[in-house]
Design goal:
The protein is of the alpha/beta class. It is built from 12 helices and 12 strands.
Length: about 350
């Protein structure tokens, strides 16, 4: 019998949207299955999400970067302009981690996208599918130097978990599969909160599921565009999930065939995805991993200025999985007409294993 190494593991996702938080759910569940105590550190929307999903767990408020996505230029450009502030945020969270480790008796930390959360005295693990960061347009010449910088930053961690399959075609394309990686990098398979959900078919729930997600203000801008295009949609049964956990009040006049939910549990969302013909959403990587649990057809609308999502959307369209639209060009009827030409995201049965903790 293999001896268990850890008793209290800190799980800390980045606070840019919900994706980093939701892909930590299977890790938390596996820890609980093995009798290991997860302690969650989060901020903003992820903090609200975890308080709803895991009210019985210890949850620490740990401030993050708090960067809004610009609607008129690249997030990478904004990140470059605000790099001193980002570096300072990483340094502050690194200092705060030391106190958290002492106060909460932590013996392992799993950081999803938070570069400052490593500590030499305990095992430190970093989750990242974006080993090779994509840059837009003329900035692409800096991708290799940025890869070297990213690799150096991740070298502070004992292990890097890549939530993808080690082969082709993979879910992340060149983001995770461009360069040869050392043994510190472990391909752990897709990390989806829906991977333990019953995926048996059932009665059709809807013709279309629209999932709104990502940071502001672009999430709200896309939401308003969707609502404008749905005012005359009276035939198809459509479900909209706004991605606003903790919000209870929202009113808008839309046809009765359209259902709006602020947030759904993993079980509820899984049931709808499994029994809906089409999903319209951001190509956020966590969403992609969710869709891969079901082998679902989708239309992608990348977050404006988010070069990673733009790359993934083009990659999936090129290999025939799913069409994509720029947000300002999105048209619902056009999207419905194009979907039959694409195969959908292939179903991937490999899921995260707790063996990495043993």
């Amino acid at each position: 019998m293999i001896k268990q190494k850890y008793s209290r593991v800190l799980i800390a996702p980045l606070d840019w949207g919900l994706g980093h938080a939701t892909r930590c759910v299977p890790i938390i569940n596996k820890l609980l299955d093995k009798g290991i105590t997860p302690v969650i550190a989060a901020y903003g929307t992820p903090l609200k999400y975890f308080r709803l999903e895991f009210p019985e767990l210890e949850i620490i408020e740990l401030p993050g970067l708090q960067i809004e996505y610009p609607s008129n230029y690249s997030i990478m450009l904004k990140a470059t302009l605000t790099f001193p502030g980002i570096a300072w945020a990483f340094f502050k969270e690194h200092i705060m981690l030391k106190q958290i480790v002492e106060d909460y008796k932590i013996d392992c930390v799993v950081s999803d996208g938070r570069y400052g959360l490593w500590y030499r005295r305990i095992k430190s693990i970093f989750i990242n599918h974006q080993i090779n960061i994509k840059l837009p347009g003329i900035f692409s010449v800096f991708e290799y130097p940025l890869y070297l910088f990213n690799r150096a930053a991740m070298a502070m961690f004992d292990e890097v978990w890549v939530p993808d399959i080690n082969g082709k075609p993979n879910l992340a394309g060149k983001l995770s599969g461009k360069h040869r990686l050392s043994s510190r990098y472990k391909f752990v398979g897709p990390l989806s909160r829906l991977n333990c959900i019953n995926k048996d078919g059932g009665e059709l729930i809807g013709d279309m599921l629209i999932v709104l997600s990502g940071p502001e203000p672009t999430r709200t801008e896309f939401e308003e565009m969707i609502f404008d295009q749905l005012h005359n949609e009276t035939e198809r049964k459509i479900i909209i999930v706004r991605g606003k956990p903790g919000e209870t009040e929202f009113q808008i006049n839309l046809p009765k065939n359209i259902t709006i939910e602020n947030h759904l549990s993993a079980n509820e969302l899984s049931k709808i995805i499994n029994n809906t013909k089409l999903v319209i959403c951001r190509p956020g990587y966590s969403t992609i991993m969710d869709l891969a649990m079901f082998g679902k057809k989708a239309v992608f609308v990348p977050t404006p200025g988010q070069s990673e999502q733009e790359y993934l959307a083009r990659y999936y369209q090129k290999i025939g999985w799913a069409p994509f639209y720029k947000q300002e060009e999105f048209d619902l009827l056009s999207a419905i007409g194009r979907i039959e030409k694409y195969t959908g995201i292939p179903k991937i049965d490999k899921t995260f294993s707790a063996s990495v903790f043993l």
